[in-house]
Amino acid sequence: MTTAHPSTPQPTVGFRRFLPHAHPISWWMLVVTTGAILINSVDRGILPAVLPAILSEFGLTEAEGGLLTGLSFFGTAIGGLVIGIFGDALGKGARRAWAWAVAVAIVIISSVLTAFSRTLGQLQIYRVIMGVGTGGMEPVNVTMVGEWWQKENRGFAVGTHHTGFPLGQFVGLLLIGGVVAAAGWREAFLFIPLIAIPIVVIQVVIARRRNLTKVNSWITEHGMTPSLTEEELDEERTEKPTRAAWTSVKAALRERNVRLAVAVNFLFLWAEAGVVTFLTVQLTRDAGLPLALAITVSGASGITGWIGQIVWGTVSDHKGRKFSLSILAVGWAVTVALMIFISSLTSAWVILILWGLFRNSPFPVMYASIIDAVPEGASSGLGIMIGVGLGLSGLVAAPVAGFVIGHFGFTVHYLFIAALCLLALVPIALIRETSSGAVR
């Protein structure tokens, strides 16, 4: 009787044949980190969702509301740069989970304080602090995904991991809408600790050195490439954290893809912040929806968002990161331009669900390209990209959107956002292709 060699993957049938072959621990880490990115998604969605209530309570204009939103992104820039950069300096593999836990602790504490804020000044301070935490969470968490999966399926892993964003954008906002209807906008911020605490505990438990060693051994036995070698896992930090951090930053900044990804990320995130900051304002004012319903509908893109991220992340593994990003830039521009025609509940559902096929998809493809290009400083590179791109785009986008909408209306606003998406095609064309499937 002939038996299959243990290192040979067995043929699969049905739906499973479309899934990458990976170690069970890799799949579990993917599930948990997807839950982790859900926290970021909910945080970014809460303030725009409840913004009409905040504008009313504190007597703010749209431009002033945009400045309030911009404070969150100011904190995000700080968190992405500082925590993202030190995510490499404090250690790779299993040790990276502890850097992420620090960022989550900042988010939990600041969200609780926000729920009990009573003045505009307090709200502004807590939003900056909360931004520091969420800004630091993403680069460290994305890097963890890359380290627990084989290089050959990195686009799929990061794309699937980022389905936490559309999940939070729909299910999270659906729950937040219910909380706002039953209680108020402050109580919505207590939703984050409820999901963050169990996720961080599970992730720290799974992210053990022995588990990563099992994963890497399995990857090697199956003829694929681990993201971390045994030498990298065994290396001890002999440098001080600040010196090690600076070494990682220099490695990241030397890579052309990191610098170009900052520009692409900046433009896409400007577009996203410009859309979501005043979406509930448009839905309540122009479409005539009550706030709780407007919050729910504003998350409609999450219904299809997971499809776009998994599909385009996987396509980028085989056809190239640049190919996927170019298609996504055009898709973004078209669907954002369609938002001019949102005037009712039905038109909002249709257009926002269509937007979901493109909304979150560029980011995991860019993240995968950075991890491909600069693995020794991946967290630093992602921290720079997220900190500069997300932080600065949010600082600029929300106030500019508030000004444009207040003076020229939503039509000019959305045409301007569409133009930004098409502008992203320029740096995309200059990115060096890193996908192993595309360069073979």
Description of the structure:
The protein is mostly helical and 440 residues long. The protein contains 21 helices and no strands. It has helices at 24-58, 62-89, 96-115, 120-147, 154-161, 164-182, 191-206, 209-221, 230-234, 241-254, 256-276, 279-285, 291-298, 302-319, 321-338, 345-355, 362-373, 378-408, 410-423, 425-430, 436-439. It is globular. The protein starts with 23 loop residues before the first helix and ends with a helix. The model is unreliable at 1-15 (pLDDT under 50).
**Mind telling me which CATH architecture this is?**
Up-down Bundle
- Give the low-confidence spans: 1-15
- Can you count the helices? 21
CATH overall fold name = Growth Hormone, Chain: A
> Total number of β-strand segments?
0
Share in β-strands: under 5%
C-alpha Rg (nearest Å): 21 Å
* Global structural class: mainly alpha
Tell me, what is the CATH class?
Answer: Mainly Alpha
Q: Gap between N and C termini, in Å?
A: 38 Å
Largest sheet: none
Shape: globular
By CATH's scheme, which homologous superfamily applies? MFS general substrate transporter like domains
Reading the helices and strands in chain order gives HHHHHHHHHHHHHHHHHHHHH
Query: What share of residues is helical?
Result: over 70%
